[in-house]
Design brief:
Blueprint lengths: L1 E5 L4 H12 L3 E6 L7 H18 L3 E5 L5 H9 L5 E4 L13 H22 L4 E6 L23 H19 L4 E6 L2 E2 L8 H10 L4 E4 L5 E2 L2 E2 H13 L22 E6 L5 E2 H12 L5 E4 L8 E2 L4 H7 L7 H16 L2
Parallel strand pairs: 1-2, 1-4, 2-3, 4-5, 5-6, 6-11, 7-10, 8-13, 9-14
Antiparallel strand pairs: 9-12
Helix pairs in contact: 1-2, 1-7, 3-4, 4-5, 8-10
């Protein structure tokens, strides 16, 4: 297939594009490569993608552009006929949205609108896009299920991703465009983002500095290793979304529709407390962390545990990587990449 992967200089997008190339698909990547975090890390990912494609003789092209610009998106689609679009480009970061909401409007709303409209005009067979577990917001019923309501987001980032889901449903309904939204739970692994906990903890511990531990480390998260996430993304993208014949307006299921629309959780079904996550890192590094215990951050939620039964039923998703293995693989990559 020929696949457009947006955000392919980002953490998840880079890994998805790599796997697609390795399995023999043609890939067109697009990324603005902004400076939200270390641009050098993003450029290193892009170089590795190009090197991989050259090594295996894969069909790969990269477009450096802003998807909020309609001309960039128009050029992407006019020059290509995509069998799948995997839209992972977004302004990331839960807490950053509290201080710079306009960047989220530009990337997550305008950019998404441009991509989904281009898919409609091109007759793209299936659009798969990134949502987030943050849409569950004030929900406290665990595990978090797609069949629950998600109308109480706690940060603007979550609100923009929920808006993406609603925008997707409208296109699935009036344009019969098949769409799948994937609600990612805490993703970690090699080539991860420097603003995320595992990266910051590893760096601080190696450099002999304390680590900031919010909520006194009592958070519970569905920490999900990147390879397992990529498995789920490709399985979901390959299987085109279809309408639910049992859906009824009297008892509307938020996760499906009569239209070819669905939203699916993608995460590890076993929640792990943050303190246990840190202990796994301590064991790998052989370093005892100096913990700076802090209260719950504004906009954060204590627990997010994924119910992934819908994704399992749909595509046979089975995450395989336990936290201690995933953390060890991240540390090995970190030491190699930074020479420590």
């Amino acid at each position: 297939m020929k696949v457009l992967v947006t955000g392919n200089a980002g953490f998840i997008g880079f890994h998805v594009a790599s796997r697609l190339l390795e399995r023999g698909d043609a890939v067109v990547g697009c990324d603005v490569v902004n400076d939200y975090y270390d641009v050098a890390l993003k450029e290193a990912r892009l170089r590795l993608l190009a090197d991989t494609a050259a090594r295996i003789g894969a069909d790969y092209a990269f477009v450096r552009g802003n998807l909020a610009d309609p001309a960039v998106v128009s050029d992407l689609f006019e020059g290509n006929r995509f069998d799948r679009v995997i839209h992972l480009a977004a302004q990331a970061g839960v807490r950053h949205s509290l201080v710079d909401p306009h960047s989220y409007v530009t990337s997550n709303l305008v950019g998404f609108a441009n991509v989904i409209e281009a898919c409609r005009q091109a007759g793209t067979p299936h659009l798969t896009y990134a949502s987030t577990s943050s849409v569950y917001g004030a929900n406290t019923t665990m595990p978090l299920s797609e069949h629950q309501g998600v109308d109480h987001p706690l940060q603007f980032y979550a609100a923009t991703k929920r808006a993406n889901e609603l925008m997707a449903h409208s296109y699935s309904h009036f344009a019969a465009l098949p769409t799948t939204g994937l609600r990612f739970f805490t993703v970690y692994g090699p080539w991860g983002r420097p603003d995320m906990a595992l990266f910051r903890f590893t760096r601080n511990m190696i450099e002999g500095r304390p680590i900031p531990v919010f909520n006194n480390g009592h958070h519970i998260r569905s920490f999900t290793y990147i390879d397992d996430v990529v498995d789920g993304v490709l399985l979901a993208s390959d299987q085109i979304a279809a309408g639910n014949p049992d859906w009824h307006g009297d008892t509307p299921d938020p996760a499906t529709s009569r239209a070819p629309f669905r939203v699916l959780n993608i995460g590890h079904p076993e929640g792990v407390r943050l303190n246990a996550y840190i202990e796994a890192l301590e064991a790998v590094l052989g370093i005892r962390a100096e913990r700076e215990l802090l209260p719950l951050q504004v906009g954060d939620v204590p627990d997010t545990i994924a119910d992934v039964s819908a994704l399992d039923r749909a595509v046979g998703f089975h995450p395989k990587t336990p936290v201690h293995e995933g953390v060890a693989r991240f540390v090995s990559w970190y030491r190699g990449f930074y020479g420590v």
